[in-house]
Design brief:
Strand content: under 5%
Mean pLDDT: 93
Radius of gyration: 20 Å
Oligomer: single chain
Largest sheet: none
Shape: elongated
Low-confidence stretches: none
Number of domains: 1
């Protein structure tokens, strides 16, 4: 009997990767540049590694009505779908790169925690875009969530890069042994 391969992880890695790239491209090359046309160089909330209360206030005072609507009605809805696909991609890739029957939990943790921070960040952005910043503490918490999300993204990328490098080194060693 032929060994049937499941769709996970190869298929999910490909689909997750392609959709991640497409959504990332739309957000970073179309929507975000449109949003930031009226903000005098101040980046969207989730494009920073954190921000001050003053920066958030200035962004909110400068963003035009049309740009605010693009942020609320196009960018953020897309950014609620985005974590599904990048998480699927990252987890599938880590699973493939782990290459053992028993998968270690540690490499998966940042990739699993990452979407929660992205969703919280998106909700906080919606609150600020709709009603302004309620308080300095809200801006600080929102900024911290953005920073945590960014750190988790970097850690996930680093884990994948290290695992990929380990696999390349192992493949080179196997090739030399043959």
């Amino acid at each position: 009997m032929k060994n049937k391969k499941s769709f996970f992880p190869d298929g999910t890695a490909v689909i997750g990767g392609v959709l991640t790239a497409v959504i990332c491209g739309v957000m970073n090359f179309i929507l975000i540049p449109k949003i930031e046309t009226s903000t005098q160089g101040i980046r969207c909330f989730d494009m920073n590694f954190g921000y001050s209360y003053e920066t958030a206030q200035k962004f909110l005072s400068l963003i035009g009505d049309e740009e605010r609507l693009i942020y609320l009605n196009r960018q953020l809805p897309l950014d609620f779908v985005y974590p599904v696909f990048y998480t699927l991609f990252f987890i599938s890739l880590i699973y493939i790169l782990a290459g053992r029957k028993k998968k270690p939990l540690l490499p998966f943790l940042p990739a699993v925690c990452l979407p929660a921070t992205d969703y919280i960040e998106n909700i906080m952005s919606i609150i600020m875009l709709r009603s302004g910043i309620p308080s300095k503490s809200f801006a600080l918490i929102s900024s911290c969530v953005t920073s945590v999300k960014t750190v988790l993204m970097y850690i996930t990328g680093l884990i994948i890069a290290v695992m990929l490098l380990i696999n390349i080194v192992r493949a080179i060693k196997r090739r030399k042994e043959q």
